[in-house]
Design a protein that fits this description.
It is an enzyme of class 1 (oxidoreductase). This protein is α/β, with parallel strands linked by helices. The chain contains 11 helices and 28 strands. Helix 1 packs parallel to helix 5, helix 2 packs parallel to helix 11 and helix 7 crosses helix 9.
């Protein structure tokens, strides 16, 4: 037994949802489109934390279903239940899975008070554990996006937090030491403790199988009531290994999000696509990229002659406590810091091979964030770093008010080639004090109902 569709989306995250919405907006016929997802719910807007499902009617949902094999030559997918689903066009939106402690030689992931955060099931478990640990002690393993944002939420919920990571600073893939120092000091002012330069060695468990202490490689032992693990993700590519070209850990696609097989497209965390601004292939782990590349893929499928190239400026953002930052571009080359690091507004530019290639801003206004997005997309030549430091944010503001040459217009928004900055979707962020880049709706929806705006 089997079913056949014109379009199949494999995956249930943000990229899958936005691809389905784009198909619907472009008039896909009833019964032509199917979504297959291991999750038991339809795709939902994870970082917006609205618990809002993304899909209109008329789309076949095959939920709670695991695909165990794919044959891209025959254009078929085989589910764990033994059903064969065929397609004409496949969009792979399988996302990524959270790395588990066992992959680093540490057992204990199955303990009831050890939490990850990647999907709805993880979120429900995390909420339950947090609810039972108010006033207790939590150890957060990892100093990246998930670690930093979960730590903020734990503090808001009156849980004592210690962050543990092997690097010398938080967010090492993005922050400079100076920027990291600001956020670490802010977290310390909220009661968060940092244990850096070491890693988890083992857990101590009680008779009920709960973790009661975290043992570190440097010999420290931390008593805990719960543990949150955020040590990275790995793209879900296993179904297509040996069938599609892989690069940067993901499925390599062209400027139309099309893989090495013309009937298969990839979007979201699993896609490695050409970033025109830098002239190389990148795989980006952020919701903004997932949304935009999903829409672009569907446009390329439905109207290939009109879709053009996917011209995207990498974009990351976060809101934690009363802080809010945005980053555009690439953090390579020489760094020029600007602003008042003892105050509320500061930032940095990255200059590589004589051109501005990256911009970071904390505490900006809508206009200021739009300005750093624009200047990064323009990639202007920089001759004097000292002058750039002196001018700081005013440099981006001045450039943004000049009409750019048509050839330099870069996509930093949602409506194709333009310099209009898309406003990030934050409806619950300020209420909850958390946006989890890889997080899900139930987690912060619970907080949004229980916490006041601060």
């Amino acid at each position: 037994m089997g079913r056949a569709f014109v379009y199949v989306i494999l995956g249930g995250g943000v990229a899958a949802g936005y691809a389905a919405l784009e198909f619907s907006n472009r008039g896909v016929s009833h019964g032509e489109l199917c979504i297959i997802s291991e999750e038991s719910v339809a795709p939902y807007e994870r970082p917006a934390l609205s618990k809002g499902y993304l899909l209109p009617e008329g789309i076949e949902l095959v939920l709670g279903t695991r695909v165990i094999s794919a044959d891209v030559r025959r254009k078929t997918l085989l589910t764990a239940a033994g059903e064969t689903i065929s397609y004409k066009i496949l969009i792979v939106a399988t996302g990524a899975r959270a790395l588990k402690l066992e992959e680093f030689g540490v057992n204990g992931s199955d303990a009831e008070n050890v939490c990850y955060l990647r999907d709805l099931t993880d979120a429900n478990r995390l909420v339950d554990v947090m609810h039972s640990c108010s006033g207790g002690n939590a150890v957060v393993i990892g100093g990246g996006y998930i670690g930093m944002e979960c730590a903020a939420s734990l503090v808001i919920n009156k849980i004592n937090v210690t962050m543990v990571f092997p690097e010398a600073q938080c967010m090492p893939r993005l922050f400079t030491p100076k920027i990291a120092s600001f956020y670490e000091d802010y977290y310390k002012s909220k009661g968060v403790e940092f244990v850096k330069g070491t890693a988890l060695s083992s857990f101590d468990m009680d008779a009920d199988g709960k973790v009661v202490a975290v043992n570190l490689r440097d010999g420290k032992r931390l008593l805990v009531d719960m543990v949150v693990v955020g040590i990275g993700i790995r793209p879900n590519t296993s179904l297509f290994e040996g069938q599609l070209t892989l690069e940067k850990g993901g499925i390599k696609v062209n400027e139309k999000m099309q893989s090495s097989n013309s009937s298969v497209y990839a979007v979201g965390d699993v896609a490695a696509f050409p970033v025109k601004l830098f002239g190389e292939t990148r795989r980006l782990e952020h919701v903004d990229s997932a949304r935009k590349c999903a829409r672009h893929a569907v446009a390329a499928i439905m109207e290939p002659e009109k879709s053009g190239e996917f011209d995207y400026v990498p974009f990351f953002y976060s809101r934690i406590f009363a802080l809010s930052w945005q980053f555009y571009g690439d953090n390579v080359g020489e760094v020029v810091h600007f602003g008042d690091f003892s105050g509320n507004t500061f930032g940095a530019y990255w200059v590589n091979k004589g051109h501005l290639v990256g911009s970071f801003l904390e505490g900006g206004t809508k206009e200021e964030y739009a300005a750093i997005a624009m200047v990064t997309g323009l990639k202007p030549a920089i001759e004097d770093l000292a002058e750039l430091e002196s001018r700081g944010l005013s440099y981006a503001m001045a450039v943004s008010r000049k009409p750019p040459p048509p050839s330099q217009i870069t996509n930093v928004g949602d409506s194709g080639p333009s310099l209009v900055l898309e406003k990030p979707v934050y409806p619950w962020h300020a209420t909850a004090g958390v946006i989890l880049a890889g997080s899900i709706a139930a987690f912060a929806y619970w907080y949004g109902r229980r916490r006041r705006r601060w």
